Structure formats: C-alpha cells, structure tokens
Amino acid sequence: MPPYPYLATDYGTQLSLFTHHMWIGGFLIVGAAAHAAIFMVRDYDPTTRYNDLLDRVLRHRDAIISHLNWVCIFLGFHSFGLYIHNDTMSALGRPQDMFSDTAIQLQPVFAQWIQNIHAVAPSATAPGATASTSLTWGGGDLVAVGGKVALLPIPLGTRGFFGSPHSCFYNSCNGTDTFKGCSLCS
C-alpha cells in the first residue's frame, strides 16, 4: 500500500525503505529490551512492588519461557519440515507431490477469511461507501502508473502459508530471548 503513487513503481527505493524500516524496528526493540534490563538491575525493588503486574509476570517467568520455547520448537520444526519435504520431492523429480499452488495446496484459510472481511468491510460498516478499505485486500483491480504495476490485489495461497510460520518463528524466538534477558536480571 504505497503512500505515493510513484513509490510503488520504483522497486529499488521500495526495497531500500522496507529494509531501512526493518532495521530501525529491530534497533528499537533491542533498545527497549536493553532499557528494561537496566531498569530491572538498577531500579526494580521486589519488596516495594509486591503483587503488581511486573511482579506477577516475573513470578510466572519460567512458565512463560517454557511455553515460548515450545512455540519456537513447534514452528521451527514444522516450517523447516515443509521446506525439507519440498526439496526432497524436487530432488526425486516429483513436482506433483510438492506443496505449491499447482500441486498439494496449503491454503491459509484464516488469513483469507480476514482478507475477505477487510474487502467487504465498507459495505457492512458504511453502506454508502462502495470502495474496499484497500485495493490489496482483493477489492480492486490492477493499478498502473506509467505502464508499471503500482498496486495489485494480493491473493493468498501456499506461498503465504509458507511465509507466515517463518515470521512467527522469528518473532517468537526474538520474544523468548528478549524476555529471558530481561527477566533473568531480577
């Protein structure tokens, strides 16, 4: 969903902006975790802050960390297993047995449901509005600027299903490491 019409057709700039903002987000998350750890070491006194939210979270930190570890293990093994399966089927010359949009399909049904809700939201919430909340939700057609594709509805299929577990795995591992670092300081 580009903020400027010509930004969508300048693919190098778009990729650079995405990478730039991902790095900034990463630095902010790591900085927040570092400051939380500094607070836990320097300023946190468990005797004066008994039974508040932070104290209750710290008392349950072992359960939280173990559950986050199980989530990381589950997502890691399953997403890696999908790629191992596809690589094996490709090496054996059996493309019909691979997970893809043209063979064995893994449809992200919940993501498609949410995407459909966003596409029909204006008719449900504002009957006078005829446009979708965004053209990327499947409510619009191709938008071209200067002969280049600027915006296209995003159909969700097997490739979206493959990408989601990796994002969840990455975020869960980072959350686990950050929580461990902050909670073990106390």
**Percent range of helical residues:** 55-70%
The major β-sheet equals: 2 strands, antiparallel
Give the strand tally. Answer: 2
Instruction: Give the strand content.
Output: under 5%
| Secondary structural class | mainly alpha
Number of helices: 5
Tell me, what's the shape?
extended
Enumerate the strands of the largest sheet in spatial order, edge to edge or round the barrel.
1-2
- Uncertain regions: pLDDT < 50 for 5+ in a row? none
Distance between the termini: 43 Å
Q: What is the alpha-carbon Rg in Å?
A: 22 Å
Pfam families: PsaA_PsaB (PF00223)
Transmembrane segments: 20-42, 63-84
Keywords: Membrane, Transmembrane, Transmembrane helix
InterPro entries: PSI_PsaA/B, PSI_PsaA/B_sf
Structure explained in plain terms:
The protein is mainly alpha-helical. The mean pLDDT is 79. Helices cover 61% and strands 4% of the residues. It has a domain at 109-156. α1 (11-42) packs parallel to α5. Keywords: Membrane, Transmembrane, Transmembrane helix. The chain crosses the membrane at residues 20-42, 63-84. It comes from Saponaria officinalis. InterPro entries: PSI_PsaA/B, PSI_PsaA/B_sf.
Provide key terms for this protein:
186 residues; 61% helix; 2 strands
Brief sketch in words of this structure:
By secondary structure, the protein is mainly alpha-helical.
List the helices and strands and how they pair.
Layout: H1 11-42, H2 53-59, H3 61-91, H4 109-125, E1 143-145, E2 148-151, H5 158-183
Antiparallel strand pairs: 1-2
Helix pairs in contact: 1-5, 3-5
